[in-house]
Amino acid sequence: MSFDFKKLIGKGGYAEVYLLQDKNTNKLYAGKYVKPRKMNQKELSLYQTEKKILRSYYVNPNPNIIHLYNVFRYEINTDELLVLEYCNGGSLLQYLYDYIAKNGKPFPENLVRHLMKQILKGVNSLHERGIIHRDLKLNNILLKYNNNNDLIKQNIYAAEIKIIDFNTSYFPNIDLPKTVIGTLPNMAPTIINNAFGFETIKTYDNKIDIWSLGILCYEMLFGKSPFGNVQNYDMMLNISNGNIHIPKTISSQARNFLYCMLQKRGSDRLSAAELLNHDFIKNNNIVMQIVNNNYLNNQITNIFFCDLDCIKTVIITDTIDTLDNVIKKYLCKINRQDLLNDYKTKIKFTSDAKLLNS
C-alpha cells in the first residue's frame, strides 16, 4: 500500500491523524501517525494495548468497531502509521450539535434507539473479549456513510456507527483494572471514588463502560450532560454520589433504559447484552396515546402522539382525512416505516380515539 497524505484531520499529544488516499485504488483511509519515541512508559504501554485491541479485530472484525487495515513502521525514526477505516461522517458529538442547531431540540427517541442499538453491539463485543473501553463518549463514536447521497443528506439512519480511540482501554491480563482514567463527565462513580480514595476495593469491571453509555445516551436524549459543562469539584461530587435526575419529558421506556445504566453501584447496572434486550431497544411494547380534538370553526384536527416518540403533534387541515391515514403520516414523519404495514397489531392504543374508515 502506498498513500498520499491528503490533509491533517486530528492531532493529539504523540499522534497525528491524516486523511490518506491509496495511490493505486484511490480508496480513503484514516492514518494515525504515532511517535512512540516521544512517549513515556505509561503512554507506551497504553499505545501497545490500543494496537493489541485493534489487531484482535483484524481477523474477526465487528461492524461497530473501527477497523485496522495495517501498521507500518518507519526504520529511520521508528514512528508508526496505523491505517484505519475512514469515517466520513465525523463524530456523533458534532452530529448532535448540528442537529440541535438545525432543529432546536436533541435527538428523537427513535433515533437514539437506532444509535444505541449499534453502540451496544460494539460494546458487547468488547466486553465478550474482556476489553473495557474506559472512555466511551459521543466524541469517540464516528459515523461512516457508504453512499455519497446519504452523506450529503446526512441520513444518519444509513450511517455505520464505529467506536474508536482505544488508547485508554484495558485488555485482559493477570492484573485487574484499577487505573483512574477517562473523561471526567463520563466517568463512573467507582473511578471518581478511586481517585478520592473512597473505595476499599480499587479494582473495577466493565460496568464502568455501562455508566458511560448511560451518560452519552442522556446527552442524545436531552442535548446536555446530566452534570453540566463545568468540570469542577461539584461535578466530581455529583458523579461520586450518583446524583442523576432524569426529566419526565421522555417516555417511560427511555427513562427506565437510562436508569438501568445510571446506577451508582456497578452490580446494579445491566450488561450490554441485557440492554440489547431492553424494551426501549427492542421496542416490542409500543404504546401510542392519541388525543383527538376537532375544531369545527377552523376545520383543524389536532392529534397528539405520546410515548412512541416522546410527544409530537400532527396538524391536519382536512377533517375528511381518516385517523388511519393520519397515523401513517405520523409514522413516516418519525421514520418508523417499519410499522406502516402492521402497526395495528404492534401498537396499543390508550385512548378512545377510533380508526375511522379503516
Please describe what this structure looks like.
The chain has 358 residues and is α+β, with helices and mostly antiparallel strands. The chain contains twelve helices and eleven strands. The strands form three sheets. The chain has a five-stranded antiparallel β-sheet with strand order 1-2-3-5-4. The chain has a four-stranded mixed β-sheet with strand order 10-9-8-11. Strand 1 and strand 2 form a beta hairpin. Helix 6 (207-222) packs antiparallel against helix 8. The longest helix has 20 residues, at 109-128. The chain starts with a strand and ends in a 9-residue tail after the last strand.
Can you tag this structure with a few keywords?
five-stranded antiparallel β-sheet, about 350 residues, about 35% helix, disordered C terminus, alpha+beta
Report a brief summary of the structure:
The chain has twelve helices and eleven strands.
The chain-level mean pLDDT equals 84
Q: What share of the residues does DSSP label as strand, in percent? A: 15-25%
Distance between the termini: 61 Å
Number of strands: 11
Structural class determined from secondary elements: alpha+beta
